[in-house]
């Protein structure tokens, strides 16, 4: 229902903004940015959720083998599995990472970006709603799990 609405109400102006936004929000580019920030701040443990997101997405796509929406409705063509959205998974991981490390203000901005990434994947017609929801939640849980594990073993960012 949400997907049908978005696909049937596309506009050329919004499409001209969403296509490049989605391209630059690809997991590989977000991970490169995460690497730069981690190196700058010497917090290399912050890369773990990103690495897990990069590995988990293709594995889960293979396991679920869920088909994407019809190719005729996709504004950018993808042929691999749909579940979970790799863009949303990485966005959820990074948004939770920002929330945990920088607090609610920056975290709110990061989650707004993550929701925009998820919206872009629906708008482009390359994912179903459940694909992006699962991606966001799984990404957030990966980061939360990494954070809790670090706390459990007593390693904080300031000790690196």
Question: How would you describe this structure to a colleague?
Answer:
This protein has 160 residues and is mainly alpha-helical. The chain is 71% helix and 0% strand. It comes from Corynebacterium epidermidicanis.
List unreliable stretches of 5+ residues: none
**Which percent range describes the beta-strand content?**
under 5%
Describe the sheet with the most strands.
Answer: none
**Percent in helix:** over 70%
Distance between the termini: 47 Å
Radius of gyration over all CA atoms, rounded? 16 Å
Mean pLDDT: 82
Structural class: mainly alpha
Number of helices in the DSSP assignment? 7
Count of DSSP strands = 0
Number of domains: 1
Shape verdict? globular
Order of helices and strands: HHHHHHH
Task: Walk me through the topology.
Elements (H helix, E strand, L loop, with lengths): L1 H7 L3 H13 L2 H15 L5 H18 L21 H17 L1 H20 L5 H24 L8
Helix pairs in contact: 2-6, 3-4, 3-5, 4-5, 4-7, 5-6, 5-7, 6-7
Give a brief description:
The protein contains seven helices and no strands. With 160 residues, the protein is mostly helical. The protein has one domain (2-159).
Give me some keywords for this one.
single chain; 160 residues; mainly alpha; 71% helix; globular
């Amino acid at each position: 229902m949400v997907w049908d609405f978005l696909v049937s109400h596309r506009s050329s102006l919004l499409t001209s903004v969403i296509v490049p936004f989605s391209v630059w929000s690809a997991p590989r580019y977000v991970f490169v940015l995460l690497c730069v920030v981690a190196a700058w701040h010497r917090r290399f443990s912050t890369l773990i959720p990103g690495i897990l997101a990069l590995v988990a997405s293709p594995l889960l796509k293979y396991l679920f083998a869920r088909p994407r929406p019809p190719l005729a409705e996709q504004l950018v063509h993808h042929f691999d599995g749909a579940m979970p959205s790799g863009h949303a998974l990485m966005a959820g991981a990074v948004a939770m990472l920002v929330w945990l490390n920088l607090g609610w203000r920056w975290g709110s901005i990061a989650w707004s970006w993550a929701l925009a990434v998820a919206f872009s994947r629906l708008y482009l017609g390359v994912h179903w709603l459940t694909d992006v929801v699962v991606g966001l939640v799984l990404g957030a849980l990966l980061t939360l799990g990494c954070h809790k594990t670090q706390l459990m073993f007593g390693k904080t960012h300031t000790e690196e």
